[in-house]
Design a protein that fits this description.
single chain, 142 residues, mainly alpha
């Protein structure tokens, strides 16, 4: 008996790439809008808030993708997880803003360590909180 092919069809890959691209455009557009609306000097508040919100959204996406509410989990994750959340959040912006906090003009170099610590602790905490919250909301009633 012949084994089933493990390779993904080219059309499926192109479909996933298109979904990631469309989601990325939406996420990046939302990011630019929020950064402009939350512009601040000193501490990068907009990037901090955006990345924490993205962690929360990603927790929801991951949890829903594992549920019976989403019929095509691969496409759902590609569009919302990789595309929207990938375009909305960005580690490179956070890293650049952390670097700028240590510039010779910065009067608060301690913010770099604090900012990095808050990103990772906050993002992972918010991610897991959203996973737990969504699972509680969608548990079958006894």
């Amino acid at each position: 008996m012949k084994e089933p092919s493990r390779s993904i069809k080219r059309s499926n890959v192109l479909n996933l790439v298109a979904l990631v691209g469309a989601g990325g455009i939406a996420g990046a557009g939302g990011r630019v809008y929020l950064e402009a609306a939350m512009a601040s000097k000193g501490f990068p508040t907009a990037t901090f808030v955006i990345n924490l919100a993205g962690a929360f959204i990603l927790g929801i996406v991951v949890t829903l993708a594992q549920s019976s509410y989403v019929q095509d989990a691969a496409r759902f994750r590609a569009l919302f997880g990789t595309g929207v959340c990938g375009g909305f959040t960005t580690f490179s912006t956070a890293t650049l803003e952390d670097f700028n906090l240590f510039s010779p003009r910065s009067i608060r170099p301690w913010l770099r360590v604090s900012n990095f610590n808050h990103y990772w602790r906050g993002a992972s905490g918010i991610f897991w909180r959203s996973v737990i919250q969504i699972r509680q909301c969608y548990q079958p009633k006894s």
